[in-house]
């Protein structure tokens, strides 16, 4: 997200930080976006701003000798599916936050990744999940810790950011 000084600042976000009144088009939350700011977003002569999404397949180490060709192909396909889920949202005009959540949901739903469905068991034999999201334009964040019953913790983290008076909820509170 672009944090332009165009339009000045106001107090905002859950932490009361100074946030721009005029935000980039990615945010789509500003009351108005100055024309010269729109031009900067589109680039020279109306060219579209390029987009990029960076993902990783989870925590931990997978040793090369433990990776079968089929497992590697499945993981690469899963990463490609996650990237496509995020890019699809952006191509259709969705926000960067929507794109990130879509990409992470794709990985949470894929048993090949150390997230959601593919999470690692605790020493007690249960699964506890964590997720966090941040919105730089609004200077806001939400997270969940020790979640045991949510299919997609990233969606729950977003709900915490958007609706809860707290930044983080843990365990049964989440």
Question: Could you describe the 3D structure shown?
Answer:
The chain is of the alpha+beta class and 174 residues long. 32% of the residues lie in helices and 15% in strands. It has helices at 35-42, 69-91, 96-108, 153-163, and strands at residues 9-12, 17-20, 129-135, 140-147, 168-170.
The low-pLDDT segments are 1-12, 16-47
From the alpha carbons, calculate the radius of gyration and give it in angstroms: 19 Å
Indicate the proportion of strand residues: 5-15%
Topology as H/E string?
Answer: EEHHHEEHE
Concise synopsis of the structure shown:
The chain has 174 residues and is an alpha+beta fold.
Spell out the blueprint of helices and strands.
Blueprint: E1 9-12, E2 17-20, H1 35-42, H2 69-91, H3 96-108, E3 129-135, E4 140-147, H4 153-163, E5 168-170
Parallel strand pairs: 4-5
Antiparallel strand pairs: 1-2, 3-4
Keywords, separated by commas or semicolons:
three-stranded mixed β-sheet, two-stranded antiparallel ribbon, 5 strands, 174 residues, alpha+beta, disordered N terminus
């Amino acid at each position: 997200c672009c944090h332009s000084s165009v339009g000045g600042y106001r107090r905002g976000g859950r932490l009361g930080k100074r946030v721009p009144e005029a935000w980039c088009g990615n945010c789509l939350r500003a009351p108005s976006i100055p024309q010269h700011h729109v031009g900067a977003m589109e680039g020279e002569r109306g060219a579209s701003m390029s987009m990029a999404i960076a993902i990783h397949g989870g925590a931990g180490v997978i040793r090369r000798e433990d990776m079968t060709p089929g497992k590697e192909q499945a993981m690469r396909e899963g990463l490609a599916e996650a990237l496509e889920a995020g890019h699809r949202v952006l191509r259709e005009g969705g926000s960067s936050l929507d794109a990130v959540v879509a990409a992470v949901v794709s990985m949470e739903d894929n048993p090949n990744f150390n997230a959601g469905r593919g999470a690692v068991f605790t020493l007690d034999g249960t699964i506890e999940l964590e997720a966090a999201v941040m919105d730089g334009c609004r200077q806001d964040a939400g997270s969940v810790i020790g979640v045991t019953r949510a299919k997609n913790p990233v969606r729950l983290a977003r709900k915490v950011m958007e609706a809860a008076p707290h930044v983080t909820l843990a365990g049964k509170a989440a």
